[in-house]
Design brief:
Blueprint lengths: L7 H33 L2 H26 L5 H69 L5 H12 L2 H7 L3 H6 L3 H14 L6
Helix pairs in contact: 1-3, 2-3, 4-7
């Protein structure tokens, strides 16, 4: 596949735009990752809450188990510690929920800030680049066939601007019918130039 034009000025523009697009894609991706990392720092509060809840739950459960083993009064003494243990479990669960909410928010913001600009760049840069590469590759492949110059000249007559055709000859269609070598070559070169391919 032919990625770049044979013409220096056009090739320099293509390379410049390629570098600019790649730099912008990298910048927006980094910005999305930076925002994601920044928001993820808010998870620290949720982790502390989860650890505190787990520690409190564990302590209350252990005390309840120890006191629950006391004969006669163990069942009644254990009840408040079991309630406190459930409160610790609720705090632990809240901490986990907070971490999950922060992660979802960070992921949404990170992707949101990166995806739209990157998609825009890909639409306005990559799609035309792919179209150019396909057109240039087909034009280059066409040169290998016999009578390709005549076909390219005819395509130039059908698709190029009248001002460009007038620069080649006052009557380019007539010259094409007469098989004027100079005009055929100039028309074929004009058509190939629009595809970024130089006629040998």
């Amino acid at each position: 596949m032919k990625l770049y034009s044979d013409y220096g000025a056009q090739r320099a523009r293509q390379i410049t735009f390629d570098l600019f697009a790649a730099l912008n894609i990298g910048l927006w991706a980094w910005l999305g990752w930076w925002l994601y990392s920044l928001v993820m720092r808010l998870q620290a509060f949720g982790r502390e809450m989860e650890q505190a809840g787990a520690g409190f739950r564990g302590t209350m459960t252990n005390i309840g188990d120890d006191l629950g083993g006391i004969w006669l009064i163990g069942g009644s003494i254990r009840s408040p510690f079991d309630q406190a243990s459930r409160a610790g479990a609720a705090l632990e669960s809240a901490g986990q929920s907070q971490q999950e909410a922060v992660h979802n928010l960070a992921l949404g913001l990170g992707i949101g800030i990166a995806v739209l600009p990157v998609l825009t760049i890909l639409i306005f840069w990559l799609v035309p680049r792919i179209r150019f590469a396909l057109k240039a590759s087909k034009a280059k492949a066409m040169l290998a066939h016999e009578n390709s110059r005549d076909l390219l000249a005819l395509r130039a007559l059908c698709g190029q601007k009248l001002s460009a055709l007038a620069k080649i000859d006052d009557d380019p269609a007539g010259a094409w019918r007469r098989e004027d070598e100079r005009v055929l070559r100039a028309l074929a070169s004009l058509e190939l130039k629009s595809a970024g391919v130089r006629l040998a």
